Amino acid sequence: MRLWRSTLVALTVLAALGAGTWPGREWLLRWAADQWIVSDPLGPADAVAVFGGGVADRPFAAARYYRQGLVTKVLVSDDRQVPVENAGIITSELAAKAVLLKLGTPESAIETFGHALGNTHQEVLALWAWAEQHNLHSIIVPTEFFSTRRVRWMLRRAFPSEFQIRVIALDAPDYRQDDWWRRTPGIAAFKNEVIKYLYYKLRY
User: Fold this and answer.
1) How far is CA 186 from CA 21, 37, 149, in A?
2) Is residue 193 domain-shared with residue 153, that is, in the same domain?
């Protein structure tokens, strides 16, 4: 039932986004987003995980949860890009760690999970391996609100049912949950995430 509901919402979104401007389109998009976005109650956990990308919001949220005493460990994904100092390229892992340190998160509280991870599927599997190895029982994963459904679905597939997962929806740097439909980046992000979700459902 949940699968059919999420698929129906996804197809509705794609139809609305591809139909141009018409009366009622804004209402339909807002309804679809309300049905699409999921977010768990924020609460204490063993650690918070910062997936690759999202450097403008995810490490900031993680640092805030650490300051609030909700977690004692911040886990940062090791993405697959190779930093080239002379070319000015920096991985999201290094950028996330820089943000965490600047916001007062002690280096001793920051750990890296995985190696050369290239997508959310790989990150989820690497996170589960790290959690199992270090005997974690709960984790917080902050992500932009449109990706919450896909990220939580992946986590629940990989982790055992007794493991407590808290996926927290974040506003994106270029748009917020209360105005995304008025901004081109918000429209594009919703469309792209729906396509990615359907792909992940078929692929994994």
Assistant:
1) 15, 13, 16
2) no
Rounded Cα gap, residues 41 and 164, in angstroms? 11
Structure tokens at 199: 């792909």
Name the helix (H) or strand (E) containing 8.
helix 2-17
Other Cβ atoms closer than 10 A to 140: 26
Give the angle subtended at the CA of 163 by the CAs of 158 and 164, to the nearest 5°.
Answer: 115
**Tokens 């063993």 label which residue?**
46
Closest to 25 measured CA to CA, from 178, 179, 181, 192: 181
Provide the whole-model pTM.
0.88
Domain limits at 166? Answer: 47-170
User: 143 near 168, Cβ under 8 Å?
Assistant: yes
Q: Are strands 138-144 and 110-117 parallel, antiparallel or unpaired?
A: unpaired
Rounded to the nearest angstrom, the gap between the alpha carbon of residue 157 and the centroid of all alpha carbons in its chain is 15
Instruction: Taking residues 32-46, report their average pLDDT.
Output: 93
